[in-house]
Amino acid sequence: MDAPVNASDDHDADTPTTTPRSQETGPIGGQLAMVVRGLAQRARIPALVARHDNTVVMGLFALVNGLVSIAIMSAAAVFSGQPFIFPSLGPTAFLFFYTPMSPAASPRNAFGGHLIGVLAGYLALVVFGLTDAGPAFAEGVTWARVGAAAMSLGLTSGAMVWARVPHPPAGATTLIVSLGIMARPRSLVVLMVAVVMLSLQAIVINRLAGLDYPTWRPRPGG
After folding, report:
1. Reported pTM
2. How far is CA 83 from CA 76, 88, 144, 159, in A?
3. Handedness of CA 17, 18, 23, 28 (dihedral sign)
4. Within a 10 A sphere around the Cβ of 45, how many other Cβ atoms?
5. Helices 143-163 and 107-127: crossing angle, nearest 10°?
6. What is the DSSP string of 152-201?
7. Which residue from 58, 102, 135, 209 lies 20 to 30 Å from 215 (Cα-Cα)?
8. Which sign, positive or negative, has the C-alpha torsion 170, 172, 173, 178?
9. Is the Cα dihedral 123, 128, 131, 133 positive or negative?
10. How many angstroms separate the CA atoms of 5 and 14, rounded?
11. CA angle 138, 139, 142 (to 5 degrees)
C-alpha cells in the first residue's frame, strides 16, 4: 500500500526558494554584483542592469570605485597636509564593496579593528623603546623591531577576537605602526579619521545600491 502523500510536502517541493538579496553572491563570490546591479537600477541604466554580473563590468566598477576611494583620501591629504593615505586602507575599501554584508566589512569592525591595530602597534613601539626610531626600511631591521612587529600583530589578532571585531586589514595597520612607517601619535589620529571617511563612503554607496548595509554593527546572520 502506497504511503499517503502529504500535500504540504508536495507544495514545498514545487515552491522555489528565494535568497535574500543581501545574501546573494555573484559569479566570483561576494556581493559586488549586487552592488553594481543596485547602482545601475538607481541610475536607470538598463544595459548595465542586464550585465551587472559580468566579470568585466564588475572589474570596471571595482577599478573606478577604488580610484574614487583613494582620490578622496588623496584630496583630503593635499588640502590638510596630513597623511590620509596608508596601505591597509586599500584592503578595507575592497572589503566594503566586495563583501559589504560580511561582519568584517561593517563600520564597527573596520573602525574597531584598525583602532586595535594602531594601539597595539604603538604599545609595541613603547615596550621596545622604538617611539623615536626611524622606519625599519631606513634604519634596518633590528631584534627590537622584530619583537615589536611580532608583539603588535599578536596583540591585534587576539584583541580583535576578544572584542569580536575581526577586520583582516588591521593586521597590516599594526605592522605599519610597529615598523615605524607611521608612528607619530598625530599621524595615528589622522589614520583613524581616514577609516571613518572610507566607512562613510561605504555606507553611502552600499545604501544607494539598495543593500541593507549597516551604519555600525554587522547585520544578524551576516
Report:
1. 0.87
2. 9, 13, 26, 26
3. positive
4. 13
5. 150
6. HHHHHHHHHHHHT---TTHHHHHHHHHTTSS-SHHHHHHHHHHHHHHHHH
7. 58
8. positive
9. negative
10. 14
11. 135
The grid coordinates of residue 169 equal: 586589514
Q: Which residue has the cell 561582519?
A: 103
In Å, how far from its chain's centre is CA 40? 22
CA 166 – CA 160 distance, rounded (Å):
5
Q: Which amino acid is it at 38? A: G
- Give Cα 159 to chain centroid, integer Å: 18
| Per-residue pLDDT of the chain in tens (222 residues, 90 and over written 9) | 455 545 444 444 444 444 555 566 778 889 999 999 999 999 999 999 999 999 999 999 999 998 998 888 888 888 878 778 889 999 999 999 999 999 999 999 999 999 999 999 999 999 999 999 999 999 999 999 999 999 999 999 999 999 999 999 999 999 999 999 999 999 999 999 999 999 999 999 999 999 999 999 998 876
DSSP string, 60-95: HHHHHHHHHHHHHHHHHHHHH-S----TTHHHHHHH
Question: For residue 79, how many C-alpha atoms fall within 13 Å in the half-sphere facing its CB?
Answer: 6
Measuring CA to CA, how many Å separate 192 from each of 92, 116, 119?
12, 11, 11
Q: Helix or strand or coil: residue 121?
A: helix
The one-letter code for the residue type at 11 is: H
All three cell numbers of 129, joined, read 623603546
